[in-house]
Backbone:
């Protein structure tokens, strides 16, 4: 039975014959501005074309056979689907009660329990069976909880755990990897990403979607690590977002995977009297790449996350010149690398102060930005050093750019003097 939830306007254009439903109404009731709008209509194609006429944008079919269309315009995404049966029947097929809403004549209505869930700010399935109608819904429950600051009551967690066990036993039912990647990305970019990953582990969904990370759970480390491998990983992810709220996806992925190589490199050192994880950064980088490629993350995101995992154990040197050289050689990983290093230290016990030292030294040393190009062109270098086109020109430009980064060279005249010395020094000849 449908019941009124609230009286309020729908502040977006509504095509004739279309009815707003779902998450946009939930967001409005939670005090958020929605960017994804869902509509049902008897003729969704006509409704989508009407919206495009009024709003502009790009219209394309999501699934033409099922009558699903999407319009992207002005920072909004409008999805149109066919209304099958009555509105109540449509809502009862949806994923969670707080999404089982529709708007009509300045009123939001929903199924029984929707108002209670909105007031309690919790996620509860419309029916547990609905999780099995779209197997991505259990992962989406965790993502919604993390991104919207909602709770998962015991009955929901139990239902998600049962669904996770089903997916482990029926791998053929797993959702498309692209859809999984999208949900995981939105989860990692949410304000409570670490809590969301904790929920994935507690419900068994970590084993389903990120099994390579399951080996960190309960992994004892010793030394400055007072947390097990998984708890430390969640701490690093939390501290990265705390230090750098705008951290991009590849930095958060690197925080999540930075120690994934530890279970594979764990060896007992009798001299130290504890386990060590030599080479875990290199091994972890390869695992990271394989995992993210399997999930269909973009190549650039994969490569940057891999590089950050590989370099997260690099120790910044002391001294401004050496530190500028250190970061210049890793310039494509900035500013993510120092933030990841700092977050890693905040996830330990006894060396937390190093986190602030790393960030302070980075900010102070790079208060003068690193150079992006040499002060002299390739043609100028060839004329100055009497060189023909070839590898030696590239080495000269590379040496000049490094000297600029270190602060040794600041003007064109200094650049010429440096290269003349560099040529005569004898250390630049090809091996």
Residues:
């Amino acid at each position: 039975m449908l019941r009124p939830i609230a009286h309020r306007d729908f502040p977006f254009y509504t095509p004739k014959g279309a009815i707003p439903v779902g998450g946009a109404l939930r967001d409005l009731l939670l005090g958020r501005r929605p960017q994804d709008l869902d509509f049902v209509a008897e003729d969704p194609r006509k409704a989508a074309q009407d919206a495009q006429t009024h709003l502009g944008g790009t219209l394309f079919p999501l699934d033409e056979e099922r009558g699903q269309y999407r319009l992207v315009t002005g920072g909004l995404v409008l999805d149109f689907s066919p209304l099958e049966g009555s509105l109540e029947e449509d809502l009862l097929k949806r994923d969670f009660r707080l999404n089982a809403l529709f708007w009509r004549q300045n009123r939001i209505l929903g199924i029984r329990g929707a108002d209670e869930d909105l007031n309690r700010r919790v996620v509860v399935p419309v029916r547990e069976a609905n999780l099995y109608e779209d197997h991505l819904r259990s992962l989406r429950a965790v993502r919604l909880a993390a991104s919207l600051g909602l709770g998962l009551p015991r009955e929901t967690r139990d239902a998600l755990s049962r669904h996770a066990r089903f997916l482990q036993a029926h791998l053929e039912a797993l959702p498309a990897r692209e859809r999984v990647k999208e949900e995981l990305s939105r989860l990692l970019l949410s304000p409570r990403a670490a809590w969301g990953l904790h929920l994935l582990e507690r419900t068994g969904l970590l084993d389903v979607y990120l099994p390579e990370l399951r080996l960190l759970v309960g992994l004892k480390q010793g030394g400055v690590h007072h947390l097990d491998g998984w708890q430390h990983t969640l701490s690093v992810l939390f501290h990265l977002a705390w230090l750098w709220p705008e951290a991009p996806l590849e930095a958060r992925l690197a925080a999540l995977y930075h120690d994934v190589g530890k279970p594979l490199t764990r060896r007992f050192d009798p001299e130290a009297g504890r386990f060590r994880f030599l080479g875990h950064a290199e091994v972890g980088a390869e695992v990271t790449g394989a995992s993210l490629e399997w999930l269909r993350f973009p190549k650039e995101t994969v490569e940057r996350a891999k590089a950050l995992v590989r370099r997260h154990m690099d120790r910044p040197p002391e001294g401004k010149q050496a530190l500028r050289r250190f970061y210049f050689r890793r310039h494509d990983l900035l500013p993510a690398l120092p933030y990841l290093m700092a977050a890693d230290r905040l996830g330990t016990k006894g060396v937390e102060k190093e986190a602030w030292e790393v960030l302070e030294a980075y900010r102070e040393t790079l208060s003068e930005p690193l150079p992006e190009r040499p002060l002299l062109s390739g043609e100028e270098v060839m004329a100055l050093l009497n060189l023909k086109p070839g590898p030696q020109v590239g080495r000269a430009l590379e040496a000049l750019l490094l000297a600029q980064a270190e602060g040794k060279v600041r003007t064109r005249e200094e650049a010429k003097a440096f290269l003349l010395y560099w040529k005569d020094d004898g250390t630049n000849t090809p091996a």
